[in-house]
Design a protein that fits this description.
binds fe (iii) ion; Metal-dep_hydrolase_composite; zinc ion binding; iron; 16 strands; Imidazolonepropionase; alpha/beta; 416 residues; hydrolase; single chain; 2 domains; binds N-(iminomethyl)-L-glutamic acid
């Protein structure tokens, strides 16, 4: 079969390949993947079929039917995997920005009925078509940043009807454009006004009434384990029920306090524990021991919440915890879709090296979505999700702070 797509003259081909394939990258392996110089990558249909140095290119497979891109010495790498977003919501929280600048904390704004609850009010009354249009606009922006797969959480409905609508919108948005969307159910975001003071009752309602309706619709179930949201014990009971129904597990934990949610979720087999700003060394060791749980670090969140404490990335890598990096795009704690900026901030504030940070937004982010067998690296047999960047050395990627280095985006073998 001739190649349907060939990218030639890649100055540096960041393969992300060469490490273990049965578990996420951790410790030294995070930076121990292969970069090929003066290389090519070839695809048939939606799959990568060959890659290597230009000298090894089989020109007989290049025909008139082959789309040929000349990278002209640029960096070529796997599409970015954005493994934690709150994609579907109405309105915005610009009105709370000023309150935050005046010193009000995230949890104070939430306790006063604002924050997440303010977005819940706007989202409940928004027509489905408006939610879909918003999601599609955001996906378009993500695609320009080179995101080729994106996780999308619900969590701004907090009632059955609206939560099901948010998952439906995420799935429909995935069908209408090329970025692959992975839906996660975050009905357990905070306690809705209807269940004020009764978090356990709300979780029982979600487990009994809502989760069964989402089987086959949402891949993962997530919960916000935090003061002012859900306790570790309530979170454990809820996640156990979700696991019994066949969902993969995720948790928002140790964002603002060290409660022990990350270690608890890792021990339940969660695919990821997200935020981790206040994760202790002792609990990090428990996450590492769990084996395959990825710590998803979100450096734009402390930046936007004016928080000094960032997740201890360097220490987590040293302890053998697999790490990924994401934006956490949402209207409250990170109204940014710039995963390249998050990557730079992980280097500046969490101690990542550029190579480690690149693994954290590709292959390890794919592990955090249980998709590493299909995406996250450039290897024969994997999906042809590929970026051509307008830089010539990978070290420039975190260096051009806040810039978008993407020149060309390929999803499933198609230039999009
Ligand atoms: O991941 N911390 C909880 N949830 C989101 C923020 C949601 C919001 O503020 O609207 C987060 O930071
Ligand atoms: Fe989040």
């Amino acid at each position: 079969m001739p190649y349907s797509l060939l990218i030639r003259n890649c100055g540096q081909l960041l393969t992300l390949a060469g490490g273990p394939t049965d578990q996420p990258l951790r410790g030294a392996a995070l930076a121990d993947w292969h970069i090929l110089e003066n290389a090519f990558v070839a695809c048939e249909g939606d799959k990568i079929v060959a890659l290597g140095p230009m000298s090894a290119l089989d020109e007989t497979q290049v025909t008139a039917a082959t789309t040929v891109l000349n990278a002209q010495g640029r960096v070529v790498m796997p599409g970015l995997v954005e493994c934690h977003t709150h994609l579907v919501f109405a309105g915005n929280r610009a009105h709370e920005f000023q309150r935050k600048l005046q010193g009000e904390s995230y949890l104070d704004i939430l306790a006063s009925g604002g924050g997440i609850l303010s977005t819940v009010r706007a989202t409940r009354v928004a027509p489905e078509a408006e939610l879909l249009a918003n999601a599609l606009r955001h996906l378009h922006d993500f695609r320009r940043y080179g995101i080729t797969t994106l996780e999308a959480k619900s969590g701004y409905g907090l009632d059955k009807e609206t939560e099901l609508r948010l998952v439906r919108v995420a799935r429909e948005a995935g069908r209408r454009q090329p970025v692959r969307v992975v839906p996660t159910f975050l009905g357990a975001h905070v306690v809705p006004p209807e269940y004020k003071g009764r978090p356990a009752d709300y979780l029982d309602f979600l487990a009994a009434d809502v989760l069964p309706a989402l089987q086959g619709e949402a891949e993962f179930v997530d919960i916000f384990c935090e003061e002012g949201a859900f306790s570790v014990e309530d979170s454990r009971r809820y996640l156990e029920k979700a696991r019994a129904l066949g969902f993969g597990l995720k948790i928002h934990a140790e964002q603002l306090h060290d409660l022990g949610g990350c270690a608890m979720a890792a021990e339940l087999g969660a695919v990821s524990v997200d935020h981790c700003d206040y994760l202790s060394a002792a609990d990090a060791a428990r996450v590492a021991a769990a084996g395959r749980t990825v710590a998803v670090l979100l450096p734009l969140v402390p930046l936007f919440l004016r928080q000094e404490q960032y997740a201890p990335g360097r220490q987590l890598i040293g302890q053998g915890v697999p790490v990924a990096i994401s934006t956490d795009f949402n209207p409250g704690s990170c109204p940014s879709k710039n995963l390249w900026l998050a990557l730079s901030m992980a280097c500046l504030k969490m101690g990542f090296t550029p190579k480690e940070a690149l693994a954290a937004v590709t292959l390890n982010a794919a592990w955090a979505l249980d998709l590493a067998a299909e995406i996250g690296s450039l290897e024969a047999g994997k999906r042809a999700d590929i970026l051509v960047l307008d830089v010539r050395d990978y070290q420039e990627i975190p260096y051009w702070l806040g810039e978008n280095p993407v020149q060309t985006v390929i999803i499933g073998g198609q230039v999009v």
